[in-house]
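Example record for the data management plan.
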Amino acid sequence: MKKVLLLFALVASMVTSANAFTIIIQGGGSNHTYNYVFLNDERCECRGRGNNGCPIKFTAVAIEKKINMEDVVNEVLARQAKGEKDGSMVYAEVMPVEWRTTGKDEIIITTKEDEVILPK
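Corresponding structural encoding:
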């Protein structure tokens, strides 16, 4: 019985220890280049029409599976282009993803992952 309780506690702590990473995209035009680009271990922001690529070429780990965050963003942008302004999905069967579009045409994407691996 104790083993079952310990296993349940371990699984529960893994689920609740998942981080929330936020990606905010605004402007950028059809070529997705931006004036303002910011990236840290909690969020990525890309705003305005400019010449800078958005640094979404980083990975996250969810349930021991590495996920390219650029692919996540592209999936959300494709769904938004089809008219899904708000929604949620489980990307690659392991990472919960939610997105919403604000009145300022910001796309706010929130993921739940175990770790974000930033480029060095």
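Summary line stored alongside the record: The helical segments are 2-16, 69-81.
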